[in-house]
Amino acid sequence: MEKIAVFLDQDNNISSFLDGAVVKIFQKDKEGWKVNKLIAVDMTKVKGIRAIRHGIQDLINQFDDCKIVVVKKRFGIAYSVFYAQDFSVWELPGKKAEEILDDVLNREKEHDCLEKEEEEKKNSYVEEVKHGEYYLDLIKVQLEDPEVSSKKALLPFIENTAFEALKLRCCHVPPWLRSHSENKNLSFEVAKITNQDYEVIIKR
């Protein structure tokens, strides 16, 4: 189900976390957007970090499976509570809820697509040579995109792939890679080809 929670003030305008009078959880079906749930909010007199965290958590516990939130401004303790629990929080001041629901949903879908593309890009750095054996030319990757660090190219693969062996070509051996491999009980071999060309083989 497509659901969006919107913090609203007494005039039905989008509000901040702590100034809201109500949270409306909208749900989209074949006929359009409908209010699925109304949650009364009264955080204006709540003081102190612990009390605010507790109050926001009480709200979150009523959100069921809704993970998209719209507020006037996303900041402070309340935002950190939502962020820590993997909510997608959108900042859209000066609007009526009904005016922004489709826009938020479209942005959310675009964001999900970009994240998926980025994840696929990370996974594409390493190529499978044969079953269980992989190769990464880090020199080539970083020439094509200097912003790609060794960690960005390697860590998701090492953490999420059941590989038998990984052969890495690099201009220097990343210090973190050696210690990380030792911590994971992986064998780590280094061969110097030239002054700026090394071959690293990591095995399980």
Reconstruct the topology from this structure:
Layout: E1 2-8, E2 22-29, E3 32-40, H1 49-60, E4 68-71, H2 76-84, E5 88-91, H3 97-124, E6 127-130, E7 133-137, H4 138-144, H5 150-160, E8 165-170, H6 175-183, E9 187-194, E10 197-203
Parallel strand pairs: 1-4, 4-5, 7-8
Antiparallel strand pairs: 1-2, 2-3, 6-7, 8-10, 9-10
Helix pairs in contact: 1-2
Look up the CATH topology of the largest domain: Nucleotidyltransferase, domain 5
Q: Mean pLDDT, rounded to whole units?
A: 91
Shape assignment: elongated
Instruction: List unreliable stretches of 5+ residues.
Output: none
Protein name: Iron only nitrogenase protein AnfO
InterPro entries: Nase_Fe-Fe_AnfO
Organism: Clostridium vincentii
Pfam family, one: AnfO_nitrog
Describe this structure in words.
This is Iron only nitrogenase protein AnfO. It comes from Clostridium vincentii. The protein is an alpha/beta fold. It is 37% helix and 30% strand. The strands form two sheets. Strands 3-2-1-4-5 form a five-stranded mixed β-sheet, with helices on both faces. A five-stranded mixed β-sheet has the order 6-7-8-10-9. Helix 1 (49-60) crosses helix 2. The mean pLDDT is 91.
Give the key terms.
single chain; 204 residues; alpha/beta; Nucleotidyltransferase, domain 5; five-stranded mixed β-sheet; 10 strands; 30% strand; Nase_Fe-Fe_AnfO; Iron only nitrogenase protein AnfO
